[in-house]
Amino acid sequence: MNTSRVTSSFIANICTGVSLIALAAGPATAADLTVTGTRNTAITTSNANSGPGNVIVDGTVDVSSGTAITVDSSNSVTVNASRTVKTTTQSNGTGVAVVTPGGGLSGTITNNGTIQVTGTGASDAVGTNNVGLLIGGTGTFTGNVVSGSASSITVGGTDSYGVSVTSRLNGNLGVNGVSVAGARSTAVSVSGEVTGNVKVTGGVSATGAAGTGLAITGAVGGGIANAGTIGTGVAQTTESDGDIVPAVSGKASVLISGTVGGGFVNDRYYVDANGNRVAPADVDTTKHTLVAGTVAALGGAPAILVSPGATGTANTVVGNVGTGADAYGIVNRSTITASGSTSGRETDAIRVVGGNGFTASVGGGINNQSGSSITASAIDAAASGIRVGDGGIAPDIVNGGRITVRGNRTANSDGSFGVGGNAYGIRVDSGAAVTSVTNSGTIEVTANGNNRTAYGIYSAGNVSTITNSGTIDATGFSGDNVAAYAIDTLANAGAVTLNNSGTIDGAVRLGAGSDTMNVSGGTITGAISFGGGSNALNISGGTVSGGLSATGGTLALGMTGGTLDLSGQDSLGLQSLNASGASKIVLDVGTDFTGINVAGAASFTGTSAIELNITDLLAGERTINVVTAGGGLTTDHPDTILTADSVPYIYAVDDVTVDADSISIDLRRKGGGELGLSTEYSKVYEASIGALAEEQALTSAVNALRDEAAVQAAVRQMTPTTFGSAAARVLIANQDAGFGVLGHRMQTIRQSFHGGGIDAVERARFGVWIQQTGNFFSKKERDNDPAFDGNSYGLTVGGDLLMGEKAAVGVGLSYISSEVDPDGLTDSPLVVKNLQGDIYTTIRFGRLFVDATAGYAMNDYRSRRVITFGGLDREAKAKFSGSQLSGNLTVGYEMPLGKRLRVTPSNNINLLKVKQDGYTEDGADALNLDIESVSFDLVRGTSKLALGYGIPLGDGELWLEMRGAYIYRLTGDQVIGTKGQFVATGAAFYLESKSSLDSGWRAGASANYIGGRTALGVNYDREGGSGYANDALTMSLAMHF
């Protein structure tokens, strides 16, 4: 229905009606009756005021039985705003009744107030057969029924009506705010005839069992437009005490079993401040008000039911709403909802179905327009968004909006579930007449329950064309053997042409006819199964994946572009194959792969190609037959149909053979060197093959790697975090930091021997101190020693005692936390926490001094490998411990150059003995590693030269120093070995990494102040060599007592 036509026609008819009444009634005369105050006696227009006249209610008409106002003459009735016409009877009561004789009447019925029939008696007994507004009699009433925006009609009792047209209304019917509550009651009923349009505004509801919101069992010459809310039924609720109040199901929110000339539109539009409709191009949402219709059915009834019913006596016929996009019998521009909260009750948002041998037709079909929505849900029963059943005729079903359907299941208190329900977005049953289904919007369906199925579009009728440029998403959510078909025409009566340029997520199942599927773009994710007949799949663009088959028939594959991804499929039988342009076929090659077998001819032209995904891990060489064509194979590019780029990078293509009837390829798995891996990483790669073969997900992940960099990154992620010198370097850095802290403290003590603060030191023999350290280190890859970077932060506290004026002894306790990021690993792969205790002493012999320390540390490690190659998302985690012994001996000589300047050469011997426990990872399944314990010893020497300068400051001295040192290995392990295996297979490897600890250098500077009982200091050192660099910063505070 063209809404502007309906609206203008509606207004014109109203004006005509008003003119007729004006002519019939003329200006107010003595016969007109205006009710003010309260009147308790009934009124008839034929004797309104001692003669025929119009009735204007400007007060209250309240009668106890019968009819409050009867129109039996050509006069009008007007109920003004906030005024009431009321019948307080239990049964057989009517608010306003037009009783038309055979000769007919004319007038206007205008309700701007309230019409009420209580429908209850003593002790709230429920009555029956009540009517709010009746247009009845044997003749024709010429005029309009007009309802203001604030008007209401409320009727109680069973088998009752809010508005009922049982005769002929030659005009328009406008209703607003009509509600009925009794069982089998109807809010608005047209069992007679309305020659004009029917328009609903406000709310129209029937909340009783088997109730109907709007029922057209007669005839409407114009169209039906809903700009309000039409509802039926009541949803199930739960009271505060937990008791369940069952749902109440109506018959339908909108029931059409007669004829409607101008279709049904659930409207949506904007109006200006005067209530005038605004053209879409002129809408300003800041100034204009949205008017949106809603049709809602609660408890399980259809929202819209078009059917002659089980007792029908004629075909139900609904004409078109308008032309173009409105050339359909049902047009939805807003919201239609049907929700079933009662277990076991089927629910359809829109249902068109024949009955009693008669058909139900909806003009050009059904159009759910852009921006609109249709929603349906059921519990332990089927739910459908749009359903055309046996005897239903809807030539074209179009969805440009959104259709959402849920088939839910009951969750019982004992943990069991109900049977669940199928979900149908668009459902065409056997015996239905639907020619085409077109989707440019979204269809989303979800089924729950054992052996239940979600169908985006389902046809068991005679659909010949399905076109999708939008999205169809079918999901089997919960339950055993729950299935999902985006499109299913298995039971369709004839051949189907399916055109897709949008998104299809779910399987596609076609029937026994000779079906054709044309894919020009978009994506299809789900198995496509053709049935009997001579079928064809034509792909010119987009991607098709999920599997392909033809059972009971033949299949011709034609490709001029796009991708056909047959991953997960071992074979495919075709009648013919023609690939041209930039088309591509992707095949999974596993143990059971037999290739594409073409009964007829196969052709590859243009830049068409075949890409292979290897689904197992090949051992040695293997010849794979990719395509076999019984009718011969031709190509204009034999050298590029299959290339090295067409297979996973870990495989080498030794030969591709294209002959007169087949294509085959010779493959072998590459060695580590061919993959650009070093000797040690090659060991991990070879050991990992068995583990990667343990799980299909791992095999698929490594076979998804398409370049050298990706393969190398994957191998690094499979390598233990402790491979290389990273862990050792951390411990050395921590030891250096600890010795640096102690060395700084001993230097401070020696500084006190030179004057600054000497008197204070003599008075304070005992000192306590605290120092904070930070290290920032990195290393480049070198000699099979992986690169890494990291940092550590530590805190050391200690105390010492002066032994005379030339010596001191002390103890220190330090805690250092380090994070190391080996190259290729992420998210702090290695964390080391170090708790160390030390004893130290410094002794001065004239200008010669000796510093010595000894320490023991307990180390806690946390290893974490994040594995993400090939789409994986795993973490291999482990926690383990270790320990270390350390010692330092330094001999130096202080040479003054004048009063304040001093040069100090020194030599240090450093001993480190480390033991790292073995560990076993978890969290990565077949990629978990078991790593054996490791230990190493190292003795280094450090030759240092320092230049210092003392500056008197206050009652103390500020000592500034610059220094440089050469670090060299004396003895110890030069290779750090990592021995381990993959837990799943026991495949072992032994990795050797040169420790890169041969030599290096260190340079730094410091500033230390001693005054009174306080000592403050800051030190910075940078170490380098063999690609390694470490920046260390120390700050200290000491107090003497």
Characterise the protein shown here.
Helix 2 crosses helix 3 (696-703) and helix 2 (679-694) packs across helix 4. The longest helix has 27 residues, at 726-752. This protein has six helices and 92 strands. With 1041 residues, it is mainly beta. A hairpin with a 3-residue loop joins strand 74 and strand 75 (662-669).
What would you call the shape?
elongated
**Number of E-type strands:** 92
Given helix and strand content, the structural type is mainly beta
The residue-averaged pLDDT reads: 91
- Using only CA atoms, what is the Rg? 45 Å
Oligomer: single chain
Percent of residues in helices comes to: under 10%
Q: Uncertain spans, ≥5 residues at pLDDT below 50?
A: 1-30, 756-763
Count of discrete alpha- or pi-helical segments spanning 4 or more residues: 6
How far is it from the N-terminal to the C-terminal residue, by CA?
100 Å
Instruction: Provide the β-strand percentage band.
Output: over 45%
